[in-house]
Design a protein that fits this description.
The chain has 247 residues and is α/β, with parallel strands linked by helices. The protein has eight helices and nine strands. The protein is 30% helix and 17% strand. The two termini are 23 Å apart. It binds SN-glycerol-3-phosphate (G3P) and magnesium ion.
Length: 247
Amino acid sequence: MNEIWSYPKIVAHRGGGILAPENTLSAIDCGHQYGHTMIEFDAKISEDQQVFLLHDDTLTRTTNTEGVAGALTWNELKHIDAGAWFSEQFVGERLPLLSEVAERCQRYGMFANIEIKPTAGLESLTGKHVACAAAAYWQNMPAPLLSSFSREALAAAQYEQPGLPRGYLMDEWQDDWQQVTQQLGCVSLHLNEQLLTDHRIQQIKAAGLRILAYTVNHPNRARQLLQQGVDMLCTDRIDLIGPNFAY
Ligand code: G3P
Ligand code: MG
């Protein structure tokens, strides 16, 4: 097993799960208020290559603006409201820069799983900029775990910052997972929890990889997966599956 691994078992998905607007500083505050010690969030680049948090390619679902986020400069993105869609309480919430998120992680002593979420067509460029920004901002903290569905993004991250741990994300089963994770020097495989059978868990562990399961929102399923040997669970129910979840 890779010695760099020191992450907790429970990870707050998109910062605050269902309790706050995803991928915002308020979401991270919320995850911390619920006692969580590790957060997952989605990072991409603006047109002028600033690294910020957003899940989708477009702004439509989680902001008050439309269009492809990666086509706008940070100056254009920084005023956009990323909280009003969620509830009145969060009106005025902004899209956070990765630097602001790193500052929060440092303040709270939180571990980070930075999911590299490239705008379509910008896979390598995003992998490069996210990895370089992560290395620059996390200098005095435990290394953040980089992950991505994009092999190109992970390859670019590996090239730029080989010392940062990487995880490969799979939403559907891929028979070449072992070859891919080996080529990309991954320490972990991050899987849709529905893909995880006892047999597959044993196979992945035998290959020396850690396993993260997402998105696990039912305590019974969480208990089962942890008992089967899954190393980490990413959850939206940060209220039900807490940092000291018993299994
Ligand atoms: O990193 C785990 C999970 O966040 C991957 O799926 O779509 O929620 O980013 P998604
Ligand atoms: Mg994600």
